[in-house]
Amino acid sequence: MRVALVNTNRITPPIAPIGLEYVAEALCASGQEVDILDLCWEEQWEQAIATFFGNREYGMIGASVRNTDDCSFATRESFLPAVAAVVESIRQHSGAPIVLGGVGFSIMPEMVLAQCGVDAGIRGEGEFPLVCLAERLENNRPWDDIPGLIARQSGGWRRNPGSFRPLTDLPPMSRGFLDNRRYFREGGQAGIETKRGCPRRCIYCADPVAKGRNVRVRPPKDVADELSRLVAMGIDHIHTCDSEFNIPGEHALAVCREIVRRGLGERLRWYAYCAPVPFTSELADLLRRAGCAGINFGADSGDDRMLKILRRDFRAEDILRTSRLCRESGITVMFDLLIGAPGETRESIVRTIEVMKEAEPDRAGVAVGVRVYPETEMEGRIADGDGEKGLVGGKDLSKPVFFVEPEVAPFVFGLLEDLTKDDNRFLFFDPERPEKNYNYNANRVLAEAIRAGYRGAYWDILRRCNTPDRSA
Fold first, then answer.
1. Is 341 helix (H, G, I), strand (E, B) or coil?
2. Which of 12, 135, 318, 322 is deepest in the core (most CB within 10 A)?
3. Cα(445)–Cα(451) distance, rounded to whole angstroms?
């Protein structure tokens, strides 16, 4: 069967849809023929769809939904209307069944299907279910029992339980299905996965909803093989797409050792998302030797009471210790903060900024407002009526709905401004302050820096743009 895969994500700077590429690898390895329509590069996307589907017939169409919105309280831009328009255009030019997937889709599958007018999708990873679906369609066999399938049925939706297979079952990743060189040239970095799933229970996070709570790791050899292929293409700035690279810690150490053993650390600069714990001096040293240039830590708060409310398993002292270990190893540090969660007070905000200044990160990103996603504890709190008055954006969670603690809502922005003024280490989701705006969607400063030759994690590019020594 010939399968079409469509990247619907057209935000800038462009980010390569590695999930779509991994799915293409799996389909191809199973004997299917795969073509990718990457709408990221198409200014006239409707004409591109017409041309693509006018040239060939397909037995199945998979369309990816990477993000439902820009996750910014300041802008609250939903991407789903654009995805729906793409789907409608595809339907005008092809009668093949359309199946949605991707991380954004998996967070709220029924809502996305309803808004886009599609009858089926795959929740969670798509490599194995889509291979099975293609084979069933090709042989005219029933496919309503496929794991992870969400399908329309009379009166609502049927949701099949997911099946998360070992990542050792994935085929080798050639990274040859997308124009990764162009993504690197115009997007400044490439992505790679070393594992999937997250066991943490943060009250707001949708990663476990989309990727599962059980961590499944890729063999370090497979990760290093994929990195080697990217380096051979001239792509030498990478970002891990794991929820937390250092969970579990032993796997992170093993990946770093394999990178060092291959000599890739001397040819790569890469970045990771990490948790403040577990983080050891051994890991910091190996990360640096493996070429890790910077780490984005999800700190959320510097106040121990708030960290407990958020169900984080570390405290302020862990943030300070981890930051010190990174500085000693020469690793650039970014801390992401989440201000305005339930229970936030003036005192907890002041404490958080004090801890950040004591930790001395290279940058600290400040997000006000907690995005409320389905199937998270935050949604449960709202459904129970606890905190409903703190909602901003209505109650329809398919749209960008945020919670801001009512006790701090009247003064939170002014307080943060007073606490961080004249300190360029603090970045905000504020398009009206381009020099401090770290909403990456349509970020003019970031796009111009990439065109000028900057490469790396977007927060680090913004840091270097505003650092006297731009090579820092």
1. coil
2. 322
3. 10
The answer to whether 256 and 282 are in contact (CB under 8 A) is no
Structural domains in the chain?
2-153 (3.40.50.280), 186-369+404-465 (3.80.30.20)
**Six token digits for residue 89:** 């255009």
Place of tokens 């790396």: 456
Tens-level pLDDT at each residue, the chain (472 residues): 999 999 999 999 999 999 999 999 999 999 999 999 999 999 999 999 999 999 899 999 999 999 999 999 989 999 999 999 999 999 999 999 999 999 999 999 999 999 999 999 999 999 999 999 999 999 999 999 999 999 998 879 999 999 889 999 999 999 999 999 999 999 999 999 999 999 999 999 999 999 999 999 999 999 999 999 999 999 999 999 999 999 999 999 999 999 999 999 999 999 999 999 999 999 999 999 999 999 999 999 999 999 999 999 999 999 999 999 999 999 999 999 999 999 999 999 999 999 999 999 999 999 999 999 999 999 998 876 656 789 999 989 999 999 999 999 999 999 999 999 989 999 998 878 887 888 998 899 999 999 999 999 999 999 998 765 444 4
Q: Where are the alpha helices (DSSP H) in 316-384?
A: 316-329, 346-359, 377-383
User: What is the rounded CA–CA span in Å between residue 301 and residue 405?
Assistant: 14
Integer Cα distance of 185 and 201 in angstroms = 37
Give CA angle at 348 (346, 352), nearest 5°. 120
The residue assigned the tokens 């009247």 is 410
The dihedrals phi and psi of 269, each to the nearest 5 degrees, come to -120, 120
- Contact between 423 and 393 under an 8 Å Cβ cutoff? The reply is no
Q: Rounded to an integer, what distance in angstroms lies between the CA atom of residue 296 and that of residue 460?
A: 9
Name residue 174's amino acid: S
Q: Is 13 exposed, middle or buried (0-12, 13-18, 19+ CB in 10 A)?
A: buried
CA-CA distance, 135 to 121, in Å (whole number)? 16
CB 298 within 8 A of CB 273: yes
* Pairing between β-strand 195-196 and β-strand 2-7 as defined by DSSP bridges: unpaired
Q: 120, 122, 125: which is closest to 151 by C-alpha? A: 120
First-to-last CA distance in the chain?
50
- Would you give the DSSP letter of residue 69? B
Identify residue 272 by its one-letter amino acid code. A
What is the token pair recorded at 347?
């005192």
Reported as type and span, the H/E element at residue 259 is helix 249-261
Task: Give the CA dihedral 305, 311, 317, 322, nearest 10 degrees.
Answer: -150
Task: Decide if 175 contacts 344 (C-beta within 8 A).
Answer: no
Taking alpha carbons only, the member of 342, 404, 406 closest to residue 377 is: 342
Spatial CB neighbours of 300, under 8 Å, sequence gap ≥ 6: 202, 306, 307, 310, 312, 336, 337, 338, 341
